[in-house]
Design brief:
The structure holds 3 protein chains of 3 kinds.
Chain A: E1 5-9, E2 22-26, E3 36-51, E4 56-62, E5 98-103, E6 106-111, E7 117-124, E8 128-142, E9 148-154, E10 157-162, E11 166-172, E12 175-179, E13 188-194, E14 197-201, E15 207-215, E16 218-220, E17 224-226, E18 236-237, E19 245-246, E20 253-257, E21 263-270, E22 273-277
Parallel strand pairs in A: 3-6, 3-7, 3-8, 8-9, 8-10, 9-11, 10-12, 11-13, 12-14, 13-21, 14-22, 15-21, 16-22
Antiparallel strand pairs in A: 1-5, 2-4, 4-7, 5-6, 15-20, 17-20, 18-19
Chain B: H1 3-15, H2 20-32, H3 34-52, H4 61-74, H5 85-92, H6 98-109, H7 123-127, H8 131-146, H9 151-161, H10 169-181, H11 185-194, H12 202-214, H13 218-230, H14 237-245, H15 251-263
Chain C: H1 6-31, H2 34-50, H3 61-80, H4 87-98, H5 104-108, H6 114-123, H7 126-137, H8 142-149, H9 153-179
The chains are: A mainly beta, B mainly alpha, C mainly alpha.
Chain lengths: ~280, ~260, ~180
Amino acid sequence: MKKLLMWSMMAALSAPLAMPQDKVTVPFRDASRPRKLVVDSLLGSVTVRGYGGQEAIVETTPRAGDGRGRGGGRGGGRGKQTEVPAGMHRIGGNTGGVEITEDNNTINISGGFFSPVDISIQVPTQTSVTVNLVTGRTLTIENISGEVEATNMNGQVNINNVSGSVVAHSMNGKIMVSLNSVMPDKAVSVSTMNGDIDVSLPSAVKANLKLKTDHGGMFTDFDIKVDSTPRPPKVEDRRDKGGPYRVEMGGTTYGTINGGGPEIQFTTFNGNIRIHKK
Amino acid sequence: MTCDEAKILLPEYWSQGLGEAEEIAFEVHLADCEACRTEASRLGSLWKGLALVPAEEPGPQLRGRFYNALSAYRQGLESAARPRWKDKVAAWWPKQPAWQMAASFALLAAGIGIGYGMRGEKPREEVHQLREEVASMRQLVALSLLQQQSASDRLRGVSWAYRAEPSDTEVLSALVSAVKNDSNVNVRLQAVDALHAFAASPMTRQAVVQALPHEKAPIVQVALIDLLVDFKDRDAAGELRKLAATESVDGGVRERAQWAVERLQ
Amino acid sequence: MARVGAGEVAQLAVLFERHHRGLFRYFVSMNRNRDLADDLVQDVFFRMLRYRGSYDPAQSFTAWMYQIARNAGVDQARKRMNDVVDIEEFAERRAELMSPAPGPEETAVRGQDLVLLRRAMDQLPAEKREILVLSRFQAMKYEDIAEVLGCEVGTVKVRVYRAMRALEQIYFTLEKEKAS
């Protein structure tokens, strides 16, 4: 049976300079089962930090002055934010406020659809975190040992001090990742169309690298052994003999660090790839 | 500690470290003894050098041979009356989430739980019968992972799919589905990459051409375009021209599509 | 015949992915023959599958694996004994042909000549080379090495030290030769 808890945090804009922050603590229903946090935001920044507690602590700070009517696609252009009468709060969600729901140990936060909101969340370190941010600001995820999925369409992505899987993408924006470890059951895959990729790894890490940049360079202070064997095999056409037809892949660089380990993947189109020792 | 005692401890000191008391005694001796210090320095530099000697790596055929042999070995060990291998393996497999499965493999591999009674075997008999089993195992892992909720698991599914047989239509379908439908950009991107191995199948080319107009992430669009060029797929020229002409498409993608059209002439 | 089920197959595949490179390096260091090393690696995995009943979970897995590896190596060496005429000379020549050349950055590190170092390794007597491969390249614990070699831990420590001394002498000689 689905039990749904709802909070709504409202942007009370009674005066342009008063930027009230709302702060709410949201428990995960079952402390013993895996926790998940999902954040969807259109406008604004999102920061998620792991901490030692058991609950999620969510703070939102609306940004005034920009974004009025920017989220025009949803619900029509709004030239002016409707003022909230003193002493009251808005009921219901669709006004640029942030909605928080908990369902089966997953906390869902969505907001920033009509006006930008900076959302800052603290969660227990062992939580899986998924953030989808669309426009303009920075997405930061830190101190998390669960699975990290981060997408920021237009803006930078910073992922620090994480030890779980990292799957990150930005269409236009730099991606910075600092990993504590690389494990076979935790995929690390980062891509961006326009932007540099900056990765920090422990100096003793063992990993296989799969790197691609169409316009840019690759730099590292690791001793990387580049694989000169192309994979998959070169073009091989033996169809006339009932054999295989295989194609060589160009442009991707494969290498190993410290003898090799699980594969970590970095792809950019316009941008450099840098791989640092921590 | 005497010189003889101390010198012998050198490699251990460098590699796994000494016990606390021993380490103190050792370091004290070294501080007082120039001969031992000199030896430590000379041998130490060689010791460090050894770690830098490049490791010989096996060629790609090693893995291929192994997996072929493994699949041959496995097949037909059971009697004809055994249940269909697929049901059996499937029953054993997927009720656990993918990460748990991987963890249990890791445990097994670490040596816990290895230990089954075994009678003598005739290698020759085993040799021809495993091929399908292992290919199926890889297929099952790939398919199972590709259906998981977490993008990390699906990415691992794509990397298992790389090792599938080119004739494996189930894995190909799953990859195509991932390219067309997966919600995660990185999964789609890597799935496109994995399709290189399935170049021979017409299903692949069709699927890529179909996926092209629907794909919105520029980095995946570029990968699809490159794949079509690698496949030398002239039929795709029409779709590529359209893409090159569409204003809402990313500039880099349009350029690439244009280049592809020219390459495919 | 006992069943080799999907479980065992999966286990072996996992073990392969984890260990085949280390084993390859071990065999190449001992034999300087890549094809032979290739064969031996295959051999070791199938022996592990076949003899898995003999594995005692209380024992270190790595130690068990390398015991099997050594046995496999010895068996092969016996078979190939007739193939090689002058072992020492052959080993050295092969070594030069087989080694991946370190890049200039690698050679320049801390004034160590890595090419020379590898040659020195190759000229070590097999037993000394082996113990250095196990302790340095495979980074095995002394307890495990003791199990593999069938001796006391204390003996292992002494032997590693003596192997390093021998390596140093050979390296020093090679350096002098190079300079002259």
